[in-house]
TrEMBL record:
The keyword DNA-binding does not apply. It comes from the Bacteria. Residues 1-162 form the Exonuclease domain. SMART domains: EXOIII. Involved in the transposition of the insertion sequence. This is DNA polymerase III subunit epsilon. Coiled coil: none annotated. InterPro entries: Ribonucl_H, RNaseH-like_sf, RNaseH_sf. One of its GO terms (cellular component) is cytosol. Keywords: Exonuclease, Hydrolase, Nuclease. GO terms for molecular function: 3'-5' exonuclease activity; nucleic acid binding. It holds the Pfam family RNase_T. It comes from Bacillus pseudomycoides.
């Protein structure tokens, strides 16, 4: 089983910022969606949403008033994930926030997978959906990003498996976007 997840957050530093939106879908071994999880997350006491994040995501502080507390949301996500393989577009980022409640033993970074397949090509989600002809409406909304990540993951997993590439727990580090967090059991590849 796989769990494809995405967080929208108040910023990049998992030590200072918080999750504001969570989306996840569980896939079976045939990569078919079998379950989903979604929630908005209320802002923690004293935390504000910057105009930049609101502009990027379309999420407002008013939207988050009906969200659940971050700790509760993350515990529910932890239960949803269970012992499945976590898949995320930029796993180092998402796993940094997830690490507050869960440090998965197995994970796949689709950004890193893309770099292993096409080392000279850009590996952002917008780049991948364009390259592989996948639809992405509302980029930087968690469920939209999860849906697009699932589709590019299916395509790239087939390519990587055919080429016999090792990608489980592989995170590609680069000077263009240095890693801020290293998950457990990581195999870092510098490109």
């Amino acid at each position: 089983m796989f769990t494809v997840l995405d967080f929208e957050t108040t910023g990049l530093d998992y030590n200072k910022e918080q999750v504001i939106e969570i989306a996840a879908k569980r896939l079976n071994d045939k990569l078919e969606v079998v379950d989903s999880f979604y929630t908005m997350v209320a802002l923690n006491e004293g935390k504000t949403l910057t105009p930049f994040i609101s502009e990027l995501t379309g999420i407002t502080a008013k939207d988050l008033k009906r969200g659940m507390p971050e700790g509760e949301a993350m515990e529910l996500l932890k239960r949803f994930i269970g012992d499945s393989i976590v898949v995320a577009q930029f796993a180092s980022f998402d796993l940094s926030f997830l690490s507050k409640v869960l440090k998965p033993k197995k994970y796949i970074c689709t950004r890193s997978l893309s770099r292993l397949i096409n080392p000279t090509e850009k590996a952002g989600l917008a780049d991948l959906v364009e390259r592989y002809g996948v639809k992405l409406d509302g980029h930087h909304r968690a469920m939209n990003d999860v849906d697009a990540t699932i589709e590019v993951f299916k395509i790239m997993k087939d390519i990587a498996d055919e080429r016999e590439l090792e990608y489980m727990n592989v995170i590609v580090d680069s000077s263009e976007r240095p890693l801020r967090y290293l998950p457990l059991y990581v195999n870092v590849v510098f490109m």
